[in-house]
Amino acid sequence: MGRTPGLVPGLAGVVAAVLISPAVAEQSTTFEVSATIVAGCEINGALATNGQSIGTYGTVDFGTHAALSTETVTAAILPDAGLTLACTPDVLLTVTLGGGLNNGATRNMKAAGSNALQPYTLHRDAGLSQEYAVDQPYAVTFDDPEAIILPVYGQAPLSGDKPPDIYSDTVLITLSW
Question: What pTM was estimated for this model as a whole?
Answer without folding.
Answer: 0.75
